[in-house]
Amino acid sequence: MSKTTVMLQTTLLAGAILLENGAEIERVEDTMHRIASNAGYPDAQIFVLLTGITVSLPETATSQVRAIHRRGMDLEKVDQVNTLSRRFAHHEISLDQFADHLAQVNRAVPTFPFSWLAIAAAVVSVTLMIAFTGHATMADLLTCTLAGTLGFATYYWISKLGSIRFLSEFGGALVIGLITLISYELTRGNCHPDAIIIGAVMPLVPGVAITNAVRDTMTGNLLSGPARAVEAVLSACAIGVGIALTSFFY
Amino acid sequence: MLHWLLTNGLLQLALAYLATAGFGVLLNIPRRALNLSGWVGAAGWFTYELLYYLLPASIDVKLAVGNLIAAVVIGVASGMAAHYKQMPMIIFNIPSLVPLVPGGQSYRVVRNLVTGHPNVAYQYLGQVVIIAGVIAIGFLIAEFFNRLAWQLIR
Fold first, then answer.
1. Which residue segment(s) compose the domain that B105 sits in?
2. Could you tell me which chain B residue has the CA closest to the CA of A194?
3. Interface mutation target, options B15, B111, B127, B137, chain A, most CBs of A under 10 Å
4. Are strands A52-57 and A62-67 parallel, antiparallel or unpaired?
5. Residue A250 has what pLDDT?
6. Contact call for residues A25 and A219 (beta carbons, < 8 A)
């Protein structure tokens, strides 16, 4: 491969990893621009949308496109791309080494095992339930721990099994609703279902996505910002409907 | 004031620290950033709770002003943390936002629409718009402060 091709593909891969793992559009464009400049192509044109990236070199009339289908959150990968880009800027690694390292980063699996994730989901659910509502009876704490953990586990397994979007959020919310309903029946109404649910859905809800949508729109990305908002609204709908299906019974 | 700090304030600080660190694990942030990002989140949520307690205003005004200043605190603190740890800023500011972001409200909008309470749903929808917009503006202000600090250091 010629040097131009390697540069185009490395820049695209770096941008794709950042975009797929939760970075804002401005950061993706900035990092890609730095990589292209440091590789000796300061005139490279970079166009980033939420669903695809284009890099082109005006002087040689070449360009490459990469479509982005999957969007998640993995900030470890964002950090690693950032570190690699910095090392490339300081000439510690060559362009070919940079490309190899990026491919490794792209294949890497999350560092935290599932047991950590389950505990983290329980911690997030319980602490935010107390912080938001102030309810902390024994029944509330137990149900919220159980609902938060199992809801997140359902979400995690469904999203591993297949790539049907928003089904994982719906499944997680349904499990949370069912556990809350069972606990409400067992304690004969001596718990606070609304408080439990608001805590237990916190690991799933798209709060960060809504905020990022506004931030992207405000930095002038008038296509990507609203696109993020649509995605966030759909996942809020999936969660809201999942909970509402069981909430008719109390 | 002192009474609030000793009873509710410290509790909220600890809760926000745990929630932020926990959310950091869910977002798979690097392990060496977990502790610091927990403290950034605790600072942001503590600012919000303090303002919520002190401000003599209606709930919507409290939400707007509290979230704005909390977002500025998070933005500036995560700028410093990113500089200190040589890591990108989003590792600190995304998990720290979790107590503030309108995730709970956005779910309540849909749930109230589905269960037939549109009036309650519109009220929460208003809160979602206010909070998300105000956090974004707060981050812009924090970005301005961070650049100012950079120029002063150089």
1. 2-153
2. B108
3. B111
4. antiparallel
5. 65
6. yes
| Regions in chain A scoring below 50 on pLDDT | none
Asked if B90 and A24 come within 8 Å (Cβ–Cβ), the reply is: yes
Measured between CA atoms, the residue of chain B closest to residue A110 is B28
Which residues, numbered 107 to 126 in chain B, qualify as contacts with chain A under a Cβ-Cβ cut-off of 8 Å? 107-111, 113-115
Q: Which value, to the nearest 10 degrees, does the dihedral of the CA atoms of residues B88, B91, B92, B97 take?
A: 130
Helix (H, G, I), strand (E, B) or coil at A156: helix
For B28, which of A110, A202, A241 is closest by C-beta distance?
A110
Q: If chain B, 154 residues long, is cut into consecutive pieces of 10 residues, what is the mean pLDDT of each piece?
A: 80 92 92 92 93 85 92 94 90 90 86 89 92 92 90 82
Report the residue from A117, A128, A218 with minimal CB separation from B26.
A117
Q: Which residues of A28-40 are buried (b: 16+ CB within 10 A; e: fewer)?
A: bbbbbbbbbebbe
pLDDT tens digits for A185-199? 888 877 888 889 999
DSSP A108: P
Asked if B106 lies within 8 A of A117 by C-beta distance, the reply is no
Q: Is B94 on the interface with A (CB under 8 A)?
A: yes
- Provide the domain count of chain B: 1
Rounded Cα–Cα distance for residues B111 and B118 (Å): 10
* Nearest CA-CA partner of A242 in A156, A153, A171: A171
CB contact under 8 A, B26 and A232: no
Cβ of B115 within 8 Å of Cβ of A244? The answer is yes
DSSP of B70-134: HHHHHHHHHHHHHHHHT--THHHHHHHTTTTSTHHHHHHHHHHHHTT-HHHHHHHHHHHHHHHHH
Whether the CB-CB separation of B136 and A215 falls below 8 Å is answered with: yes
